[in-house]
Amino acid sequence: MSGGATRPWVELRQVTLRYGHVQALAGVTLRIAPGERVALVGANGSGKSTLLRLLHGLVGAHAGGLQCDAALRQAMLFQRPHMLRTSAQNNVALALWLHGTRWRDARLQALAALQRVELQGVAARNARTLSAGQQQRLALARAWALRPDVLLLDEPTASLDPHAKREVEALLADFAAAAAGAAQPVTMVFSSHNLGQVKRLARRVIYMEHGRLVADLPVHDFFNGPLPEAARLFVKGELV
Ligand SMILES: Nc1ncnc2c1ncn2[C@@H]1O[C@H](COP(=O)(O)OP(=O)(O)OP(=O)(O)O)[C@@H](O)[C@H]1O
């Protein structure tokens, strides 16, 4: 399952990216088709965040080729969301307004997005006073209100307690399931250290090591089939 014959959302060829002397991505070749749900796994520093940032255009490659379908709308979520010092509702409405929605409509659509993540009760609260779990749900509402075709998530539940983790993961599963029936299903690429979450949310798993893609397999094969040694030890270490 490496993107198939359909027109890819993104295609990378031998991409290299450095931060000073640190080689964060080394010869990455990758193709992701619309509608895929891809998990990026690997040890700390293996390049997962960098790859996500590259896919979202936040950093540029130093060498290699990257082609992306610019017609598809993208949104990205981070481990710790950045909220503006205004109400939860305004945080979503401002994102919509910046994308050209009239303020009145933006406020209404924001409320609908808050309902979807069950935050309507705190719509008027300063977003920065919400709990970490509520802020991540708000970030999800803000991203989702923009109706992205592609959702990139960098360890979206890593800094949450188990309860909030389950809530956010359930929302992601819900969004993915709702989008699966849509004409254009959402493409999701997320990094995670939580292999249970990877099993539940991903269809394809990419294992990274030192900026390289060491394994790229359908989720079932990743957890049940033979793996390159490093990836096998990683999975084993996580499962004990
Ligand atoms: N802004 C930066 N400046 C310098 N080096 C960086 C920067 N961001 C990342 N790096 C380095 O690039 C490499 C890849 O980092 P990256 O954050 O992409 O890995 P990761 O797999 O997402 O790690 P983690 O699981 O800890 O989030 C690491 O060696 C990291 O120290």
TrEMBL record:
Sorted alphabetically, which keywords does the UniProt record give?
Answer: ATP-binding, Cell membrane, Membrane, Nucleotide-binding, Transport
> Domain ABC transporter spans what residues?
10-235
Where, subcellularly, is it found? Cell membrane
PANTHER family noted in UniProt:
AMINO ACID IMPORT ATP-BINDING PROTEIN, GLUTAMATE_ASPARTATE IMPORT ATP-BINDING PROTEIN GLTL
Q: What is this protein called?
A: ATP-binding cassette domain-containing protein
Q: What's the source species' lineage?
A: Bacteria, Pseudomonadati, Pseudomonadota, Betaproteobacteria, Burkholderiales
Instruction: Tell me, in one coarse class, where this protein mainly resides.
Output: membrane
What is this entry's stated membrane topology?
A: Peripheral membrane protein
Q: Which InterPro entries does its entry note?
A: AAA+_ATPase, ABC_transporter-like_ATP-bd, ABC_transporter-like_CS, MetN_ABC_transporter-like, P-loop_NTPase
What is the species listed in this Swiss-Prot or TrEMBL entry? Verminephrobacter aporrectodeae subsp. tuberculatae
Gene3D superfamilies from the UniProt entry: P-loop containing nucleotide triphosphate hydrolases
| Family statement drawn from the similarity comment of this UniProt entry | Belongs to the ABC transporter superfamily.
Any one GO molecular-function label of the UniProt entry: ATP binding
Domain of life (superkingdom)? Bacteria
